[in-house]
Amino acid sequence: SDVGSQKDRVVTEEEWLEKWEMGNIGFHKEEGHPLLQKYLDVLLNGRNGLRIFFPLCGKAVEMKWLADMGHSVVGVEISEQAVKEFFSEHSLPYCEEPVPEISGAKMFQSTSGNISLYCCSIYDLSSSIVGKFDGVWDRGALVAVNPCDRQRYASLMISLVEKNSSYLLVTVSYDPNKHKGPPFYVPESEIKSLFG
Question: Which of 26, 122, 165, 166 could pair with 161 as two cysteines, CB 3.0-4.6 Å apart?
Fold first, then answer.
């Protein structure tokens, strides 16, 4: 499977921040993702009160949807603007505090306590900071990660999940020679080698 010219493509944190500043966020969906609704039973697996992780969460509306069902949601996002927009768009009061283990990082938590969003690089997180998760909703994270960082990303994600967790992953399929990404094309064979 040829990934075209994408394997060397790098999108910097500055470029992601600029996308948010310019409102160039076509990746954000105003409605809940139909695949999460379709496979919700797989994610929850009959369990209640789960800790669910949203990598590169942006201002995903599904975070509030799952929190309203009684789950605890933790996200990570580089853009403080995105995090603040999430809380304001859902009229959720929140508090903001520094993350002592990560220089410059902040954690924004709903006053109800069931939504915690870390504003920092995902690679600064570890299970000692955020704990472990029962479920992951990866709707646009793996496909946004620079191809050269995929192994690092997958290793981090594996370190953050409990043994019996569910990991829902959405990818996109297209000819990588015709689009430079992101979203990046991740062949199924690579997903299998990354996550086993």
Answer: 165
Q: Is 26 annotated as a binding residue?
A: yes
| Residue 58 among known ligand-binding residues | no
Strand ranges inside 7-130, DSSP E: 51-54, 72-77, 94-98, 106-110, 115-119
Per-residue pLDDT tens for 58-90? 999 999 999 999 999 999 999 999 999 999 999
User: Is 44 annotated among the ligand-binding residues?
Assistant: no
63 is in an annotated binding site: no
Bridge partners of residue 72, in order along the sequence: 51
Q: What top-level class would CATH report for the domain 13-23+33-40+48-195?
A: alpha beta
Q: Is the pLDDT of residue 1 over 50?
A: no
CA distances from 71 to 85, 113, 119, 137, 180 (A): 21, 11, 20, 13, 36
Asked whether residue 22 is marked as a ligand-binding residue, the answer is yes
